[in-house]
Amino acid sequence: MTILVFQQNLYSQKEIVGKVEYYISNNYDIPSFTASSEKTIKYLNSRRQQIELIQGNSITEIKTDTTGIFKINIKLDENLKITVNKKSKLLASEFQFSSNQLNDTLKLRITDEKIDIYKDSIASPKFYNMYNENQAYSDFENGKKRILTGAGFVSKESSIRRKKLSEEYGFEYEPIHGCIILSSESRIIYRYNKIMKKLIGIKNVW
């Protein structure tokens, strides 16, 4: 009987290949920002990542190779939880897979947004506290629907388009900076507006 149980466990297990991959989540449309993000992503994707796998009562800890790949035997009839870089405040990410999602290859894609947010909150703490992502959600819930902009020149065509959009969707354009603005502040504004645009329900508001 013991031998039969052992054989069943063998047949219910399968070796899978996992791959951890960091990617750029925001396209700021500014070359210097893109170059910086690409450099960070290249570095992250060349590191060995710490992996924790939990399946039933079993906990396994392994590391990927320098390309983000790891291999492990898992049970096909149990859900799987994978945590990448559990001890890192910025890099920790969690993935849940039901038993019917356990394919030969599991892709664990992780956004770089946490890193961007952290860097910008350090570079421009006061500005970040005023216009962070949580503030966008809070503003929307409190009926403060706004898109943050600069106070520079706006063409007649853009002005007409903005007026039409703001009246149609019930929001306002709010100028909060002049011609000179820090890179970190530009990214903070971008992320605030990204969330607000989604909540308002329109894709393009510029």
Protein model, in words:
- The chain starts with a helix and ends in a 6-residue tail after the last helix.
- It is elongated and about 65 Å long.
- α3 (113-123) packs across α4 (125-131) and α3 (113-123) crosses α7.
- The protein has 2 domains: 14-115, Immunoglobulins (Immunoglobulin-like, Sandwich), CATH 2.60.40; 124-200, no CATH class.
- The protein is built from 7 helices and 9 strands; from the N terminus they run αβαββββββαααβαβα.
- Helices cover 40% and strands 28% of the residues.
- It has 206 residues and is of the alpha/beta class.
How would you concisely characterize the structure shown here?
The chain has 7 helices and 9 strands, in the order H-E-H-E-E-E-E-E-E-H-H-H-E-H-E-H. It has helices at 2-11, 31-44, 113-123, 125-131, 133-141, 156-169, 183-200, and strands spanning 13-23, 50-55, 58-63, 69-75, 80-84, 93-97, 105-111, 146-150, 172-177. Strands 3-2-5-6 form a 4-stranded antiparallel sheet, with no helix packed on it. It has a 3-stranded mixed sheet with strand order 4-1-7. Strands 8-9 form a two-stranded parallel sheet.
Descriptive keywords:
206 residues; alpha/beta; Immunoglobulin-like; 2 domains; four-stranded antiparallel sheet; elongated
Q: Kindly estimate the percentage of residues that lie in beta strands according to DSSP.
A: 25-35%
**Could you list the spans in which at least 5 consecutive residues all have pLDDT below 50?**
1-8
Q: What topology, given as strand order, has the largest sheet? A: 3-2-5-6
The fold-level CATH name of the largest domain is Immunoglobulin-like
User: Helix coverage percent of residues?
Assistant: 40-55%
What general outline do the C-alpha atoms trace? Answer: elongated
**Total DSSP E strands:** 9
CATH class of the largest domain: Mainly Beta
Total domains: 2
**Distance between the first and last residues' Cα:** 70 Å
Major beta-sheet overview: 4 strands, antiparallel
CATH architecture name of the largest domain: Sandwich
By DSSP (H or I, 4+ residues per run), the number of helices equals: 7
The succession of helices and strands, N to C, reads HEHEEEEEEHHHEHEH
Overall structural class, as computed from helix and strand content, comes to alpha/beta
Alpha carbon gyration radius: 23 Å
Task: Summarize model confidence as the mean pLDDT.
Answer: 88
CATH superfamily of the largest domain: Immunoglobulins
